Amino acid sequence: MSWIYLLIAGLFETIWATFLKLSNGFTHLNYTILTIVGMIISFYCLAKATVSLPLSLAYPIWTGIGAVGTVIIGVVLFGDKINPMTWVFVGVLLIGIVGIKITS
């Protein structure tokens, strides 16, 4: 169950970061509220995951899911232009996340 909590936490990190962008510096109330709700869910699930998973494992996976997810959201939803070399490093980040899980 801890891995499910960790996955949900990472996904909600991506969600709240997206709403943070859409809030336009907290000037749009609905997106600001969604940002805060997303943060609460993300942190709650991370806290639940760390009950039985080591912090040294859970935290980097949580931030990695959020980082990779926000790169993808930025490209797909916001039209961010990503340098091909950046995609290489996103791939390295994914390999690192998988490596942390495999070696835990």
From TrEMBL:
<dbReference type="InterPro" id="IPR037185">
    <property type="entry name" value="EmrE-like"/>
</dbReference>
<dbReference type="InterPro" id="IPR045324">
    <property type="entry name" value="Small_multidrug_res"/>
</dbReference>
<protein>
    <submittedName>
        <fullName>Uncharacterized protein</fullName>
    </submittedName>
</protein>
<keyword id="KW-0813">Transport</keyword>
<feature type="transmembrane region" description="Helical">
    <location>
        <begin position="85"/>
        <end position="103"/>
    </location>
</feature>
<feature type="transmembrane region" description="Helical">
    <location>
        <begin position="27"/>
        <end position="47"/>
    </location>
</feature>
<keyword id="KW-0472">Membrane</keyword>
<dbReference type="GO" id="GO:0022857">
    <property type="term" value="F:transmembrane transporter activity"/>
</dbReference>
<dbReference type="GO" id="GO:0005886">
    <property type="term" value="C:plasma membrane"/>
</dbReference>
<dbReference type="InterPro" id="IPR000390">
    <property type="entry name" value="Small_drug/metabolite_transptr"/>
</dbReference>
<keyword id="KW-1133">Transmembrane helix</keyword>
<dbReference type="Pfam" id="PF00893">
    <property type="entry name" value="Multi_Drug_Res"/>
</dbReference>
<keyword id="KW-0812">Transmembrane</keyword>
<feature type="transmembrane region" description="Helical">
    <location>
        <begin position="59"/>
        <end position="79"/>
    </location>
</feature>
<keyword id="KW-1003">Cell membrane</keyword>
<comment type="similarity">
    <text>Belongs to the drug/metabolite transporter (DMT) superfamily. Small multidrug resistance (SMR) (TC 2.A.7.1) family.</text>
</comment>
